[in-house]
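Sample 1 of the test manifest.
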Amino acid sequence: MTKRAPVWASIAATLRAEIAQGVYPPGGKLPTEAALSARFGVNRHTVRHALAALAEDGLVVSRRGAGVFVAAAPRTDYPLGRRVRFQQNVTASGRTPSREVLRIETRPADDAERAALGCEAVHLFEGISLADGLPLGQFRSSFPAKRFPDLPEKLHRLASVTAALAEAGLRDYTRASTRITAKLARAPRAGLLRVAEGAALLRTEAVNIDADGVPVEYGITWFVADRVALTVTPEPGAHPADVS
Amino acid sequence: MTKRAPVWASIAATLRAEIAQGVYPPGGKLPTEAALSARFGVNRHTVRHALAALAEDGLVVSRRGAGVFVAAAPRTDYPLGRRVRFQQNVTASGRTPSREVLRIETRPADDAERAALGCEAVHLFEGISLADGLPLGQFRSSFPAKRFPDLPEKLHRLASVTAALAEAGLRDYTRASTRITAKLARAPRAGLLRVAEGAALLRTEAVNIDADGVPVEYGITWFVADRVALTVTPEPGAHPADVS
DNA sequence: TAAGATTTGTTCGTATGTATG
DNA sequence: TCATACATACGAACAAATCTT
């Protein structure tokens, strides 16, 4: 005599699974109640009951006249501090960081790299940073090839810039300058980052230097704007002299 | 005997004026050479001569097989330093800054303002910042009404936050924190900023504090991403203690 | 700016199955 | 067996917010 689960509960479970699988992405719109009731062959009330259960869990948010939307995950704060600490940033927000390496290669420097690093050949390290499996951004970092001959092997093995540079003898490096603009996601990158074409991306262009002020990394990162907020907090102790 | 200007020169002048008026926005595509020669009733070579003149000035860029495009104006660098200096930033890039005031009013604080300023009523100062007449961003600043009773009048008269606060007795104030995200421009704001709907905007949310660390301004600014780059440069003298 | 279509929110009413006393 | 209460499910209509044209 197993008690049959209510229809609304099984519908809620189905939708819950589909949301988890990304069928309806964060911030995305669910089908209308009418469409769902047609799909499941039930009355609209029954669908509403299921949706109410999801809303109870904070999984969806409904807006009268607009639709029912998958609750957008809160943005991950990404402090543009003196040090680059991707893992810490993600972990601090209660998520699990991961990294997907797309490319490691050595090639001649392009104009921007030559200007930033002042060298003719660079190691390239390109990949995707994820939090809980969801892409936060795509990074592309260049390093002077001459100074760090074995960096590609270390990057392959460690998949971490900080660790690889440390093994290459660079104890510490800091952010010298960052330029922030915004772009729209286009075909190839939109797919990599799992966003719709035309979604807003934050593009940061950063130069990192060693303790002597010599540039050691030139990096460009495209963050998914819906998933990341960059934060800037002037460090205490600095007191610039500037005049209005 | 006034020497008649060559036809190609007058066509160039016409196109130059239309680009300046925004008929062809920065980055936008000009009509094809064939279309232009039809419009002006001249041979395609004449149009090419005119376009070559514009290209010489760096006003347009032609790409074989794609078309001729209005050169994107270089982005105005906007340093997120400790002080907010809009005028300096624009002047430094060789442009003429101006400001268009949209709204000055006093009203109850919303949740974000209450959280940032800790007060129940705020003065609102809203407007557009322009460089050479082109909108760079829309700002909306809130100030604690109780602390600065006469601020609206001062803002009306001076149209400058720094000057108005100075007159209200606030000698100095600095940026405490800034949060940066990106959004797509929607209907009302897109018009105000003179960009297409769906263009990328940089949204900054900043809290400024006085010398005692008390918040005095909560401001949100939407920058047109194509026209502005935010720059972050850690100030010398700071030496944070952080560990990997 | 205005009108119409779309979509969720709310409130009636009806019917069925199940547990309880 | 009957009455009651409750959760479930379907149907219809309208209100209110939103989107589109």
